[in-house]
Each structure stands twice: as C-alpha cells, then as structure tokens.
Amino acid sequence: MVLLDVGLPGLSGFDVLQRLREDHPRVPVVMLTGLNDEAKARRTLQMGAVDYIRKPFDLGHLNRVVLAAIGKTFGPPKSPG
User: Fold this and answer.
1) How far is 81 from 66, CA to CA, in rounded Å?
2) Which of 7, 38, 42, 50 could form a disulfide with 69 if both were Cys (CB 3.0 to 4.6 A apart)?
3) Is 5 helix (H, G, I), strand (E, B) or coil?
4) pLDDT tens by residue, the chain, 81 residues
5) What are the angstrom distances between the C-alpha of 3 and each of 15, 79, 81?
6) Any idea where the domains of the chain sit in the sequence?
7) Which class is 2-74 in CATH?
C-alpha cells in the first residue's frame, strides 16, 4: 500500500506512480494532493491509482479507502486462530 503525493520535491508523483505500476503492479496506490484538479485526478486513476484524495482529508475517509484498497488487492483479513 502506497500513499503518494502528486507534488514531490524535485520529482513528479505521476512519474513515481508510473514506475510503481511497471515494477509492482499489484501494490495499491492512493494519490494525495492539495490541488483541486479533476484532470490530474482522472489521469492518476487512468494510470492505475486506486483513488485520489484531496488534502486536507478526513482520516476516517482515508482509513476506509486504504482498507478497501488492501481488501480488494489482497482479500479480506484472515481471522486469528
């Protein structure tokens, strides 16, 4: 599970996302950004991100998105015991 900001110092989150998709296609990636840019949101989803969340975000929402992405990728958690 990767939480990836669109804007990184000296690097594009889009470039990192592309590399992650090439090298680790099963790892779910949620993009984060402080920008309100629908075109960039669509682009990240087309590139394989599982979601796009604008900052500031609600931690409960982030938690639900992360759990859903992990569950979709790796299946439901196994019961202890």
Assistant:
1) 25
2) 50
3) strand
4) 999 999 888 889 999 999 999 999 999 999 999 988 889 989 999 999 999 999 999 999 999 999 999 888 777 667 776
5) 14, 26, 31
6) 2-74
7) alpha beta
pTM here is: 0.84
Taking alpha carbons only, the member of 32, 30, 34, 66 closest to residue 49 is 30
**Angle of the 38-46 helix axis to the 13-23 helix axis, nearest 10:** 10
Which pLDDT value is given to residue 8? 87
